Amino acid sequence: MELNTTTKISEAVIRRLTDYLRCIRCAGEAGRDMLTSLEISERCGLNASIVRKDLAQFGAYGVKGMGYNVRDLTRQINKILGLDKLKDVVLVGAGHLGTAIIRYPGFADVNFNFIAAFDTDPEKIGKTIGYAKVYPLEELKPFIRKHAIQIVVLTVPSSEAQAIVNDLDPGYVKGVLNFTAVIFPPKQNNMFVHNIDLAKELEVISYCMKNCLSQGS
Amino acid sequence: MELNTTTKISEAVIRRLTDYLRCIRCAGEAGRDMLTSLEISERCGLNASIVRKDLAQFGAYGVKGMGYNVRDLTRQINKILGLDKLKDVVLVGAGHLGTAIIRYPGFADVNFNFIAAFDTDPEKIGKTIGYAKVYPLEELKPFIRKHAIQIVVLTVPSSEAQAIVNDLDPGYVKGVLNFTAVIFPPKQNNMFVHNIDLAKELEVISYCMKNCLSQGS
DNA sequence: CCATGTGAAAGCGTTCACAGCG
DNA sequence: CGCTGTGAACGCTTTCACATGG
């Protein structure tokens, strides 16, 4: 039951783990307390073998002949992904997308907590989005220091993205979720940057439709 | 200069192509008219070799000793991805996320045009988001038929997702961009479904921070 | 001389097939 | 008997290294 923390795990595995988590949680809510690798694989559109391999990589959770215990597995995957503790997150750029993200219901499930937003627009400053108050951008740096913020979500116009990232303090910030069209290298200033481009997803589907590619998330 | 349409292209290649497109467009706006595979690779956080392989796969665009012509390359990649023609798209679920998506500035760049939104909330019906009018959900089906809509973006609560997807007419709809937490198989009713989960992206970054994984978008 | 285009080699990730165990 | 856990086979992707050509 020990977690394996030595081996290098690829991002593909991590992404699948998040899918398992979602489908296991869903099955749990439906009253299931055991799930087989086959069931998980079908719900996630995968091969059963890879589900077992992925899970085995972190320690042997399964019971032969039975499957995996929903409760244990949820806890384990949460722990692997580092979702077992509440994480404070701040948003930079309180536009439409930023607002939608703060209000997105899926974040609480995974223990993410938006505690503040930052913007330059005086109209927005002082307002509250969800539980997050909007502060002027100048206060971002001291706020990060004061609250030891480790994760920043970036939803500013693309033109401002670089300057903000440059100015983040790598002594505190370890991860940036970048929703702008700027492509940052995966490691910037010792911070993990994760680029998300909503248009990209539509572009991929455009190609899939044009030609014929069978591929999932 | 002919496009290769026979070989099977993996989704990984397509995703990189969208990155190339973005960084090439950006370089073009900065006044560059030639780019080398090395420059593209650095901007996208990749190896130069794979950039050349990807591009060569669709025909030889490069000029030896010089690099790639920005203007031509943009046009070619747009064509490969099927972004060369304007596409009408509808949104189902006019909540915060849906609103943000319609207003997201990146879609016009790639010729996506949100022409309507659908919702059950009487408060929202009749209003306009961007250029899209909000209609009652009942009108989705006839609207799709009337306007021959091929792409649907789904931003409804997760509990309603399955019913809506089941009810889409595969005679018209070829692609669904699913923002709900429900995981759909990549092909549902002969439609391409692409699952996007915003929480997933934070989960991945959470893991990256906890352990140490170097990986990009 | 410089950067492309491309075989050949290396590295990864997935699938298969089955032994082992409850 | 059913399902996990896993070595071994397979196939795909990426990287290397260099011949080719403007």
Describe this structure in words.
- Two copies of one chain form a homodimer.
- Chain A has helices at residues 11-29, 37-44, 48-56, 70-81, 96-103, 106-109, 140-147, 158-167, 198-210, and strands at 34-35, 68-69, 87-92, 112-119, 128-129, 132-136, 151-154, 175-178, 187-188, 191-195.
- By secondary structure, chain A is an alpha/beta fold.
- Chain A has two domains: 11-81, Arc Repressor Mutant, subunit A (Orthogonal Bundle); 87-200, Rossmann fold.
- In chain A, strands 5-6-4-3-7-8-10-9 form an eight-stranded mixed beta sheet. A two-stranded antiparallel sheet of chain A has the order 1-2.
- In chain A, helix 2 (37-44) packs across helix 3.
- The radius of gyration of chain A is 20 Å and the shape is globular.
- Chains A and B meet through helix 1, helix 5, helix 6, strand 8 and strand 10 of A and helix 1, helix 5, helix 6, strand 8 and strand 10 of B.
- Chain A binds a DNA duplex (22 and 22 nucleotides) through helix 3.
Q: What can be said about this structure in brief?
A:
The structure is a homodimer of 217-residue chains. Chain A contains nine helices and ten strands. With 217 residues, chain A is an alpha/beta fold.
Number of helices of chain A: 9
Proportion of strand residues of chain A: 15-25%
List the uncertain runs of chain A: 1-5
Structural class of chain A comes to: alpha/beta
CATH H-level superfamily of the largest domain in chain A:
NAD(P)-binding Rossmann-like Domain
- The topology string of helices and strands of chain A comes to HEHHEHEHHEEEHEHEEEH
Distance between the termini of chain A: 30 Å
Q: State the CATH topology of the largest domain in chain A.
A: Rossmann fold
How does the major sheet of chain A shape up? 8 strands, mixed
Tell me roughly what share of residues is in helical segments of chain A: 40-55%
Give the strand order, joined by hyphens, for the main sheet of chain A. 5-6-4-3-7-8-10-9
CATH class of the largest domain in chain A: Alpha Beta
Mean pLDDT of chain A, to the nearest integer, reads 91
Shape of chain A: globular
Name given to the CATH architecture of the largest domain in chain A: 3-Layer(aba) Sandwich
Largest interface: A-B, 73 and 73 residues
The count of domains of chain A is: 2
Multimeric organization = homodimer
